């Protein structure tokens, strides 16, 4: 049950001490504009979208590094046409950005475009460590996945965690975003019960237009009923407004118990833009 005592401002600030942000390959100008508002050394994920190419992704990772942040390139296993394409990407990343962090995900295509059925198959190649990666992030779905059963999701997560341990690579988990803390806490308790001790970066939508947030929620199978979004801080009757994760983060800071839930960080999906999100985090952290 939630504890309804006032949120401790120090708990909020400490949650925001070490957060990460997400950008696409096309967002380099936006990152340059936002750089002054982002703490040096912040982890910035670079997506692996179907409408971006290898030079764009590598260029974005290099820009993250150049601006004083930590690049976390994404690799979408099912989008890779061959091992040669994977090695070409890893080699270019090593040359241009020398990242030690990477995020591996299965990806959207219904049929793999090459030899990798899922992110576990990619991890098991052993290539990530060979190209200098030390920390590998994998996906978590506190509200489940529209096309994959919970049982399969849990099996995949624990298999990936075990494979990374065998390879001597650090593991962390980045979750899908959501508007409701309840399923996140239930999922965290279950994760720890299953023996997974990796730190978890909880996905949080940055401040954005309500309409845009709802569109992303629909796309990713995130619950957005009237009751849930009201609790989060916006209403389905005002689609022209904007909403930030203020209430969600305060509730999170209030309910997080490290002994039960383990180490928790926040990962911001920047639907409203990098600068908007970075400014919001800075102001929210200052206000506690």
Topology:
Blueprint: H1 9-15, E1 20-23, H2 28-34, E2 43-46, H3 54-66, E3 70-76, H4 83-96, E4 101-105, H5 119-124, H6 127-130, E5 135-140, H7 150-167, E6 170-175, H8 181-193, E7 200-205, E8 208-209, H9 210-220, H10 226-232, E9 242-243, H11 246-255, H12 258-261, E10 264-269, H13 274-287
Parallel strand pairs: 1-2, 1-10, 2-3, 3-4, 4-5, 5-6, 6-7, 7-10
Antiparallel strand pairs: 8-9
Q: Describe it for me?
A:
By secondary structure, this protein is of the alpha/beta class. The chain is 44% helix and 17% strand. It has 13 helices and 10 strands. The chain has helices at residues 9-15, 28-34, 54-66, 83-96, 119-124, 127-130, 150-167, 181-193, 210-220, 226-232, 246-255, 258-261, 274-287; strands at 20-23, 43-46, 70-76, 101-105, 135-140, 170-175, 200-205, 208-209, 242-243, 264-269. The strands form 2 sheets. Strands 1-2-3-4-5-6-7-10 form an 8-stranded parallel barrel. The protein has a two-stranded antiparallel sheet with strand order 8-9. Strand 2, helix 3 (54-66) and strand 3 (70-76) form a beta-alpha-beta unit. The longest helix has 18 residues, at 150-167. It starts with 8 loop residues before the first helix and ends with a helix.
């Amino acid at each position: 049950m939630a504890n309804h005592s006032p949120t401790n401002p120090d708990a909020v600030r400490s949650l925001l001490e070490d957060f990460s942000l997400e950008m696409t390959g096309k967002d380099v100008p936006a990152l340059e504009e936002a750089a002054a508002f982002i703490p040096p050394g912040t982890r910035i994920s670079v997506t692996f979208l179907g409408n971006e190419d290898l030079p764009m992704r590598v260029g974005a990772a290099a820009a993250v590094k150049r601006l004083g942040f930590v690049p976390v390139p994404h690799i979408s296993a099912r989008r890779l046409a061959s091992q040669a394409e994977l090695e070409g990407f890893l080699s270019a990343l090593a040359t241009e950005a020398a990242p030690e962090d990477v995020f591996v995900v299965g990806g959207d295509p219904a049929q793999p475009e090459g030899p990798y059925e899922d992110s576990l198959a990619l991890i098991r190649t052993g290539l990530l460590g060979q190209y200098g990666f030390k920390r590998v992030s994998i996906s978590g779905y506190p509200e489940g996945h529209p096309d994959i059963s919970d049982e399969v999701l849990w099996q995949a997560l624990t298999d990936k965690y075990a494979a990374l341990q065998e390879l001597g690579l650090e593991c962390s988990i980045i979750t899908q975003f959501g508007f409701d803390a309840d399923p996140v806490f239930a999922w965290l308790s279950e994760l720890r019960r299953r023996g997974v001790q990796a730190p978890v970066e909880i996905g949080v939508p940055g401040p954005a237009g309500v309409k845009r947030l709802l569109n992303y929620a629909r796309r990713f199978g995130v619950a957005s009923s009237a009751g849930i979004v009201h609790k989060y801080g916006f209403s389905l009757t005002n689609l022209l407004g904007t909403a930030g994760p203020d209430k969600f983060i305060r509730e999170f800071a209030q309910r997080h118990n490290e002994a039960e839930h383990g180490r928790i960080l926040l990962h911001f999906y920047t639907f409203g833009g990098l600068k908007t999100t970075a400014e919001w985090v800075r102001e929210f952290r200052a206000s506690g």
